[in-house]
Amino acid sequence: MQSRHHLVFxxxxxxxxxxxxxxxxxxxxxxPPTTSCRYRSPAGHVYDYSSADTNDGKAWxxxxxxxxxxxxxxxxxxxxxxxxxxxxxxxxxxxGDPKSCGKLDTQRWFVVGNDDGSGATIQYSDGTLCQGMRAxxxxxxxxxxxxxxxxxxxxxxxxxxxxxxLITMSGEDFCAEGSHPPASGCYLSTPAGYS
Length: 195
Prior knowledge:
This protein is 14% helix and 27% strand. The chain is globular, with a radius of gyration of 21 Å. The chain starts with a helix and ends in a 24-residue tail after the last strand. The strands form four sheets. Strands 7, 8, 11, 12, 13 and 14 form a six-stranded mixed β-sheet that branches. The protein has a four-stranded antiparallel β-sheet with strand order 3-4-5-6, with no helix packed on it. The chain has two helices and 14 strands, in the order H-H-E-E-E-E-E-E-E-E-E-E-E-E-E-E. By secondary structure, the protein is of the alpha+beta class.
């Protein structure tokens, strides 16, 4: 019985040494969060948003009605703003420190409405606390359109959820692979409750 325990202990020790010496353990600890610019919807539509991730290599930017500036990447970390780390969406208030409005490693994909290839939605959460009670989050609705990628309207705060921000974009880069952009405005509808 003692030799069996010795064999198990020795095997575990050899495995641990292999992992440590190969650098795999360090790689696991040091790896940045993995996110994707590709998504396959439940109906099988494939979206690749890597070409629209940035606006010519910089973060997309827009202001909300209160004058706060938002910076975001569709599916990578915002690096254009000091003080907002590991985030896909950041807010630069008119005064005060930058705020995370969604951490990159919380990326969650889904489809709102018909799963017909007309676009997908990405949500980022776990941002800086807002009003001391709720973590900021942002929902990016990315709709297929017949023009280059662009913002549709202003950044909005979700009327039903404090500290939740809504950004809607449209463009050819947001169509499912193999889909064609619709006639102008065909897929651009505002969900009920939003203006």
